[in-house]
UniProtKB/TrEMBL annotation:
Pfam families per the UniProt record, alphabetical: COX3
Protein name in UniProt: cytochrome-c oxidase
Enzyme Commission number, as recorded: 7.1.1.9
Entries under PROSITE patterns matching the protein: COX3 (PS50253)
UniProt keywords, alphabetically: Cell membrane, Membrane, Transmembrane, Transmembrane helix
Coiled coil region boundaries: none
Family: Belongs to the cytochrome c oxidase subunit 3 family.
Protein topology in the membrane: Multi-pass membrane protein
InterPro entries documented for this protein: Cyt_c/ubiquinol_Oxase_su3, Cyt_c_oxidase-like_su3, Cyt_c_oxidase_su3-like_sf, Cyt_c_oxidase_su3_a-hlx
SUPFAM superfamilies in alphabetical order: Cytochrome c oxidase subunit III-like
Organism this protein belongs to: Nocardioides imazamoxiresistens
Length: 195
């Protein structure tokens, strides 16, 4: 319940960012038309695809936790070869999710570097300010999710036995990760589609 309340407060935070974005956009429509020409939409779409797919890999990790809990066993790692993805446990799926999230952040950093090189900075215009605020805060949330994955994974390696509390932690981290993905879909649609 606490997780849902906390995610609700995060939703309000991002709702305020969306409201500011649309308010400033309504006041400066010409600026938006000029500044959005700097965006690399195909690159952002590929980066978005990676983040959205990471939500599926995260959920596969949750299914692995639930599957091992149903069988009464503490298996959180793969039961077969590494290339046999159907035998993967929570660890393998969460590690893949972590890698995909890291690739997303690296892609966002690359996009920032290209935009700064093109002259779009936080100080250059109201559009730049809103672009970097919305995507930057989202990036911080992705980084927070990656840290949470590391903590959950670390606990599975340190603990002798996979407990119910660890399973709940993995599920809570997945809620957060899905939330971050849904927020990004909204941001992507707002920033890159509704130019």
């Amino acid at each position: 319940m606490g997780t849902i309340i906390w995610l609700s407060s995060e939703l309000m935070f991002f709702a305020a960012l969306f409201a500011a974005y649309f308010t400033i956009r309504a006041a400066e429509p010409g600026l938006w038309a000029q500044e959005t020409s700097h965006l690399n939409v195909p690159f952002a779409a590929a980066n978005t695809t990676i983040l959205v797919l990471s939500s599926f890999t995260c959920q596969m990790g949750v299914f692995a936790v639930e599957r091992s809990a149903a069988k009464g066993g503490p298996q959180v790692s793969r039961s077969g070869k590494i290339y046999q993805w159907r035998s993967w446990g929570m660890r393998e799926w969460f590690i893949l999710t972590y890698v995909m999230g890291s690739v997303f952040l690296a892609g966002q950093a690359l996009e920032y570097a290209e935009l700064v090189h093109a002259g779009l900075t936080m100080q250059s215009s109201a559009y730049g300010s809103m672009f970097y605020l919305t995507t930057g805060f989202h990036g911080l949330h992705v980084a927070g999710g990656l840290i949470a994955f590391l903590l959950v994974l670390g606990r599975t390696y340190i603990a002798r036995r996979f407990t119910h509390e660890q399973a709940v932690s993995a599920i809570v981290v997945s809620y957060y990760w899905h939330f971050v993905d849904v927020v990004w879909i909204g941001l992507f649609a707002t920033i890159y589609w509704i130019m």
